[in-house]
Structure formats: C-alpha cells, structure tokens
Amino acid sequence: MFKKCCLIFLTVLFPLSIPFFAQTPDTVFLEELTWTEVRSAIDNGTTTVIVPTAGTEQNGPHMVLGKHKYRINAGAERIARALDNTLIAPAITYVPEGDIDPPSGHMRYAGTISIPQSVFIEVLEHTARSLKQHGFTDILFIGDSGPNQRPQEIVARQLSSEWESEGVKILHISDWYKIGIFDEYLLSQGASYDQIGTHAGLRDTALLLAIAPERVRKENISPGKGSDIDGVSGDPTIATAELGKVGFDLIFNAAMDQIRELMARD
Question: Looking at residue 29, what DSSP letter applies?
Fold first, then answer.
C-alpha cells in the first residue's frame, strides 16, 4: 500500500506520459540561444549580426558604470527587430578608456576598465572572423562610446576589403553615435550647451532614464562639478525620461537610415 501511494504521488509530480519541450525564446541575443538554435536561424536566412560595443567607465555619482552597455543593448535590440533576420552578439564592454598607470581619462575613477586600442582592434577582428565562420554575411559594428568609433572603422574597412569577393560585409554604423542630433533637440527645448555637457550631464542622463531608469541613482543627481572633480560635465538635474525617449528615437532613426543605405550597396 505504501509503495502504491508513493508511485501515485511521484506520477502526479512527474507525469511520465507528458514530455517537456522547451520552446525557442523570443530573443535576438546570441547568448540567450543554444548553438543549434543559432545554426537553424542562419540556415533559415538570419545572416545579419550586430556587434555592440560599449565600455565600463565612470558616469558620475548618479549613473552606473555599465551605462553604455544598457544603452547599446536596448538600441541593438530595437535595430535587430526592425531589420528582421538579425541577431546580436554579446556586447563588448572592455574598450579603451585611458591610460592605466599613471591613470588618465576615466581611469582616474574607481571601477573603470581600460584596454589598449590595439587590443580592442584585435577583439573586434576576431569577433567578426568568428561570426563569419558560422555563416553571417552582414556584420554590423555599433558603438555607444567615442573611443570605439575609430577602431570599428579600421576593422570594418580591413575585413570588408579582405572578404569583398565572398560577399561578406562589415559595416561600421557611425550614426548611432551621432549625438549632435539629440543635442540640437535639447537646444531647441531651451537647454544650453553647458547643461547638455560632454559626459554624464543632461544628454547622457536623459538617455539612461528612458532606457534603464533603475540604473540611475536619482538621490545622487546634482549639477556637475567638472570632469576633474566628480566626473560630470553638464547638469543632469534637468534630465527626464521623456527627453531621453526623444533622443533615443532620433539616434535610432539615424542609425537605421545609415544601415539601410550601407546594406543596399553592392
């Protein structure tokens, strides 16, 4: 009787007649897929891949070190879904951020991680070579930080030339970092260049509030004292998520226009 009850109990908990099949998740991120799911996607025409680059750097007392990662992942996902048949490689978060010893640039602030530009170029190159090997034919470098732009351009030009006869394109999407279009909008709304700032000010803070508000320490927001004091240039106190959403749309549209133009070329 005891064995019979146990068998009934276990059958209820673990019904042997109902197999469990995991469904492929609705995701465009490589790291959230299995290798067989990626292979199947490529075989079925998903041959475009985005390589997002970010950075791990100080962003004042009010924004997390991963600001660029959160921004570029949100942007890359929106772009991938708009393009269709597109996946996203894991964001590269180690990029040039200044000299290490003696420290310069953002390396003067705790938590920042920096690598030499030559190392970053090698990481980009071998990432692209890996993705090409698997069957991706359009590889898009999209960077959310200034120091990332020139290395991406160098590698895209080098590999595009090398693989031209194979029909593989490496595209540097520079217009994602066309931050001037958002600055123009902020100026039209009455902001000044001093308030917009160059780092962790109005522009930067508004964008993160729109994309990942939980990554902003609102209790620590104050007008910037300067890049040599608190790492903030500009006035983040007047930033809002509403402004950031407008900026995100402007940057997204600029990047999409450039992507479609570049991908349409022979």
Answer: B
For the entire predicted model, the pTM comes to: 0.90
3-state secondary structure of 24: coil
Closest among 75, 88, 85 to 263, alpha carbons compared = 85
Single-letter amino acid, residue 174: S
Start-to-end CA span in the chain (Å):
76
- Walk across the sheet containing 138-143 and list its strands: 86-88, 48-53, 138-143, 169-172
Q: Are 180 and 203 in contact (CB under 8 A)?
A: no
> Is 3.30.70.1130 the CATH classification of the domain at 25-264?
no
- What is d(CA 164, CA 175) in angstroms, rounded to the nearest whole number? 23
Phi, psi of 202 (to 5 degrees): -60, -50
Distance (Å, rounded) from C-alpha 67 to C-alpha 156?
25
**pLDDT, tens digit (0-9, with 9 covering 90-100), for 112-161:** 999 999 999 999 999 999 999 999 999 999 999 999 999 999 999 999 99
Q: What six digits make up the tokens of 128?
A: 């692209």
Secondary structure (3-state) at 22: coil
Q: Give the pairing of strands 86-88 and 138-143.
A: unpaired
- Gap between the Cα atoms of 226 and 231, Å rounded: 6
Q: Where are the alpha helices (DSSP H) in 26-116?
A: 35-43, 67-83
